[in-house]
């Protein structure tokens, strides 16, 4: 399940991606426009800055901007920064793998196989969606437009 922290991080990153010509956006504006508690948002923005996804500029006219182009940042990157691995259980994770203590045969474990499929499907969708695509309406909307839906 997506945490509220990751959801707020996605909202903030989409707000920054939507800025024209890399214009700065202040935390207070993001908080107000996207209904994100300001103190919580500031902690999220600090983490995103530490991870190299955004730049911050101090001063009266300071604010935040993306550190990379919007087409180079995926939902998957943001979710992993905020929530950690995408897998619902540790033994199905690629980045946070831990063997289950109660598992006798990991290769034959139907739970692990199924949760690995869940992880792979989530990663495919989240890693395939960039901020730029989401700002344009997402991959699904492009497919629907092509189909005339």
Question: Would you write up a description of this structure?
Answer:
The chain is mainly alpha-helical and 149 residues long. It has a domain at 4-66: Arc Repressor Mutant, subunit A. 52% of the residues lie in helices and 5% in strands. The protein contains seven helices and two strands. The chain has a two-stranded antiparallel ribbon with strand order 1-2. Strand 1 and strand 2 (63-66) form a beta hairpin. Helix 1 crosses helix 3 (38-50), helix 1 packs antiparallel against helix 4 and helix 4 crosses helix 5. It is elongated, with a radius of gyration of 18 Å. Residues 143-149 have low confidence and may be disordered.
The amount of helix comes to: 40-55%
CATH superfamily of the domain at 4-66: Winged helix-like DNA-binding domain superfamily/Winged helix DNA-binding domain
Order of helices and strands: HHHEEHHHH
> Mean pLDDT, rounded to whole units?
88
User: Strand fraction band?
Assistant: 5-15%
**How many β strands by DSSP?**
2
Task: Sum up the structure in keywords.
disordered C terminus; Arc Repressor Mutant, subunit A; mainly alpha; 7 helices; 149 residues
């Amino acid at each position: 399940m997506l945490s509220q922290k990751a959801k707020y991080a996605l909202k903030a990153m989409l707000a920054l991606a939507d800025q024209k010509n890399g214009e700065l956006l202040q935390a207070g504006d993001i908080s107000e426009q996207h209904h994100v508690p300001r103190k919580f948002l500031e902690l999220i923005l600090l983490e995103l800055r530490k991870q190299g996804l955004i730049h911050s500029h101090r001063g009266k006219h300071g604010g935040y901007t993306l550190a990379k182009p919007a087409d180079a940042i995926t939902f998957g990157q943001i979710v992993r920064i905020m929530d950690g691995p995408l897998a619902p259980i540790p033994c199905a994770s690629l980045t946070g793998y831990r063997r289950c203590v109660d598992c006798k045969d990991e290769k034959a474990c139907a739970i692990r196989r199924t949760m690995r499929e869940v992880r792979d499907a989530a990663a495919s969708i989240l890693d395939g969606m960039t901020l730029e695509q989401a700002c344009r309406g997402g991959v699904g909307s492009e497919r629907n437009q092509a189909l005339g839906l």
